[in-house]
């Protein structure tokens, strides 16, 4: 029962512990990653908009700024939740032994696992929401649209956070985390329709990009400009991804603590 029992208080206490640690150095640690998608939005918005002009999306002509704003929200979610799940959890698991220390308290493995996952999810939500607020203040994504899109930001943060946990449980050295970073995260960042419509890619690249989870998240966040034809399938795909990677992450981390 030590491994599987769950109470909301147990999960919250793990999340709160991480939040308190983060609070001590929040400015140093949060400024670079949180500012990254916002800088992309401002830089590409001002830099490329005059060159690109308008973009055709689902048969409608929209400004380039309106097109990339949801992509920047998705990137904020991706980077913050995955990096916290991968690097943050790896350090707490392998170097600081925080997981082992928490398990000496009256906490189960599931509570520690969910608390870590919840913390990675929280950081993705913060990054996605702040980027969205910049887009709202800029007038390229309405406040109501951001509010309605909030469940999608949570969903994306949960998925990329647990993918990060899977990486943390699978990799044996911290340098190995660069493998999923460069083979999976960077291709998603560049090919999933964040900066340009995927239809401009060669067919084989477009088909590969269509199956990557960031493509589904960005398409769904772009709903004010038009829903994709298979939006329901994409939504189910994100949910299935959460279920799949949570099971895989659990199976990778649990044996390292209970041998």
From TrEMBL:
The chain crosses the membrane at residues 64-83, 117-141, 148-171, 177-196, 231-250. This is Transport permease protein. GO terms for molecular function: ABC-type transporter activity. It is found in: Cell membrane; Membrane. Keywords: Cell membrane, Membrane, Transmembrane, Transmembrane helix, Transport. The keyword Transmembrane applies. Belongs to the ABC-2 integral membrane protein family. It comes from the Bacteria. The keyword Cell inner membrane does not apply. Its main location: membrane. Pfam families: ABC2_membrane. Residues 28-256 form the ABC transmembrane type-2 domain. InterPro entries: ABC2_TM, ABC2_TM_bact-type, ABC_2_transport, Nod_factor_ABC_transporter. It comes from Coleofasciculus chthonoplastes PCC 7420. It is a multi-pass membrane protein. One of its GO terms (cellular component) is ATP-binding cassette (ABC) transporter complex.
């Amino acid at each position: 029962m030590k491994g599987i029992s769950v109470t909301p208080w147990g999960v919250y206490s793990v999340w709160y512990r991480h939040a308190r640690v983060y609070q001590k150095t929040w400015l140093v640690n949060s400024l670079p990653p949180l500012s990254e998608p916002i800088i992309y939005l401002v830089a590409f918005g001002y830099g490329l908009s005059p060159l690109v002009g308008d973009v055709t999306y689902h048969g409608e002509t929209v400004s380039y700024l309106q097109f990339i704003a949801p992509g920047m929200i998705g990137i904020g979610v991706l980077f913050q939740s995955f990096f916290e799940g991968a690097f943050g959890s790896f350090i707490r698991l392998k170097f600081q032994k925080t997981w082992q220390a928490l398990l000496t308290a009256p906490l189960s493995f599931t509570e520690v696992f969910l608390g870590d996952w919840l913390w990675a999810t929280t950081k993705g939500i913060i990054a996605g929401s702040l980027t969205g607020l910049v887009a709202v203040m800029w007038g390229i994504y309405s406040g109501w649209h951001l509010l309605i899109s909030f469940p999608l930001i949570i969903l994306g943060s949960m998925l990329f956070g647990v993918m990060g946990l899977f990486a943390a449980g699978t990799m044996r050295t911290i340098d190995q985390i660069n493998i999923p970073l460069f083979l999976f995260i960077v291709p998603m960042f560049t090919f999933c329709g964040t900066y340009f419509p995927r239809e401009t890619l060669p067919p084989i690249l477009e088909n590969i990009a269509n199956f990557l989870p960031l493509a589904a998240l960005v398409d769904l966040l772009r709903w004010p400009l038009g829903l994709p034809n298979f939006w329901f399938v994409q939504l189910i795909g994100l949910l299935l991804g959460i279920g799949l990677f949570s099971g895989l992450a659990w199976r990778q981390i649990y044996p390292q603590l209970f041998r």
